[in-house]
Design goal:
InterPro entries: TGT-like_sf, tRNA_ribo_trans-like
GO molecular function: tRNA-guanosine(34) queuine transglycosylase activity
Organism: Opuntia streptacantha (Prickly pear cactus)
Number of strands: 2
Enzyme class: transferase
Distance between the termini: 24 Å
Number of helices: 7
EC number: 2.4.2.29
Length: about 150
């Protein structure tokens, strides 16, 4: 997720990042899809263009990759801001669970658990990182650093 070129590299191959995972806009199924890339996204691309139009562009023109890159970068920035806010507000585990449930709605769950196996494994492996994030959050107030993300 934090590979610096991931959003633009995947866009060059006609793949858009969406809350449910990835959307391959080069696939023939997109040729007549009149929905936006992500109906919940408020980026310029999702407000303006359909999947069918972008499908046409990514199969024939570099402009398609540029539009998908714009959307992917917008998506990653919003996701990063949401993660930052959830750490500050102490709701990171809930946001993390919601994110994985969207990506894996059909299952991939471990031993009948309500959480996907990847989430359980990731939480157990990264508990130290989460504790560090929460410790940093509690230190913000004593250091005088704002606990709110920048407003734009």
């Amino acid at each position: 997720m934090y590979d610096c070129v991931y959003p633009t590299r995947t866009a060059r191959f006609g793949t858009a990042l969406i809350p449910e995972g990835v959307l391959k806009l080069k696939h023939h199924a997109m040729a007549e899809d009149t929905r936006s890339i992500d109906p919940s996204c408020s980026c310029m691309v999702c407000k303006t263009y359909t999947r069918a139009y972008i499908h046409c562009l990514v199969t024939k023109d570099a402009m398609g990759s540029q539009l998908v890159s714009y959307h992917n970068l917008y998506y990653m920035i919003k996701l990063s801001r949401d993660l930052h806010t959830s750490i500050i507000e102490g709701s990171f585990p809930e946001l993390y669970a919601i994110f994985y449930r969207r990506c894996f709605p059909k299952g991939m769950y471990l031993n009948g658990s309500a959480m996907p196996w990847m989430l359980l494994e990731s939480i157990s492996c990264h508990a130290v990182i989460l504790q560090l994030a929460l410790k940093i959050r509690s230190n913000y107030r004593c250091c005088g650093i704002s606990t709110r993300p920048r407003e734009r």
